[in-house]
Amino acid sequence: MSEKKRIVVLISGSGSNLQAIIDAVNSGFIAADISAVISNKSEAFGLTRATEAGIATQVLDHKQFNSREEFDSNLASVIDRYQPDIIVLAGFMRILTPEFVKKYQGKMINIHPSLLPKYQGLNTHQRALDAGDSHHGASVHFVTEELDGGPVIIQGSVAISPGDSAESLAAKVLVEEHRIFPQAVKWMAEDRLKLVNNQALLDGQLIPVN
């Protein structure tokens, strides 16, 4: 039996997706270990979740650095201490430099609250409502230099109801996030998921894009 893969999770907030991954590891659904949770905000509740699960935590406050490059360089040093096989961005609200992204290309995945390529960036739920969409959702994708533009791995879709607000829609989408994110991490841990020529492959097959 090969050694379990090591995961490092980056967060900025409450860490509900982190919790979904912790639960999936603890249940055996994901055959890997979470080595550390790193946050750029000391008040992030996700740090409490990690501590309660017995996972090492680190805070690297981006405000302490003079540039994005300096922050990313220090972040990479912290990450590399744990020698992760997989880096998971679970609500990490920082735009990463191209150098940082290149360093971890193919090992780093992110979750985004929209059906990419729709609504890259912020305020996705309101934008879906404003556009009169019938469906909305979340996407797990490989991180590339294009913001929210890396190849999609898996998506979860929800129907938009007539009475939905941005808040109610966000709550519906979060349920899907907690379903699809652990699934993507599981595939990574099993070496079934690869980034090849800027395309996502599962079991050697191209993952169809919407």
Outline the structure in words.
- By secondary structure, this protein is α/β, with parallel strands linked by helices.
- It has 2 domains: 104 residues, Rossmann fold, CATH 3.40.50.170; 88 residues, Rossmann fold (3-Layer(aba) Sandwich).
- The protein has 6 helices and 10 strands.
- A 7-stranded mixed beta sheet has the order 3-2-1-4-5-6-7, with helices on one face.
- Helix 1 runs parallel beside helix 6.
- The protein is globular and about 50 Å long.
- The mean pLDDT is 96.
Structural class by SSE content: alpha/beta
- Give the number of DSSP strands: 10
Contiguous uncertain segments of 5+ residues: none
Shape: globular
CATH topological fold name of the largest domain: Rossmann fold
Estimated helix fraction: 25-40%
List the domain count as a whole number.
Answer: 2
Average pLDDT, rounded to a whole number, is 96
How are strands sequenced across the largest beta sheet? 3-2-1-4-5-6-7
Question: What's the CATH class label of the largest domain?
Answer: Alpha Beta
Rg of Cα set:
17 Å
| Biggest pleated-sheet summary | 7 strands, mixed
The share of residues in extended strands comes to 25-35%
Alpha carbon gap, first and last residue:
36 Å
Give me the number of helical elements.
Answer: 6
H/E element order: EHEHEHEHEHEEHEEE
For the record, the CATH architecture of the largest domain stands as 3-Layer(aba) Sandwich
| CATH homologous superfamily annotation of the largest domain | Formyl transferase, N-terminal domain
